[in-house]
Amino acid sequence: MSGRAWREWTTREIDVMRAHGHLGVGAVHDALLAECGTDRSVRAIESQASRCHVSLKVQQVCPECGVVGVRLNRQSGMCPKCTEAMHLAEEVAFNEVLQREREEKADVREVAAIRRERDRMRQRNSRLCRRYGLPSRRERQGGR
Length: 144
Hints:
Elements: H1 11-20, H2 25-36, H3 42-52, H4 80-105, H5 108-132, H6 137-140
């Protein structure tokens, strides 16, 4: 045996190993040290994991929801569900922008104000043409 005395594994240590097994043997070692105060060797952790049927294979974890072992989207870095939820949120936000733009363009008061300004300018141009004998817009465009 090594220089450390052999100790039985407590249920707390096994629970910590099960909880952190998906992060790999190094993370289990660090978690045992931090949570239980026991300094187990990497080989001892691997042996006990084998006995307890705990996988120490490093698995991916979704940063959004924390699900373990699913394939993460390469671009978003999240699981498929969180990726789709993100896309849905983006589409909802874009829809709100479009609705706001549509409402701004269809604002009756603004359209009426623009129309009044246009009518004012048409009247002013018509008066100038009559006063100084200039050709009107219709006459300039070929008399349509």
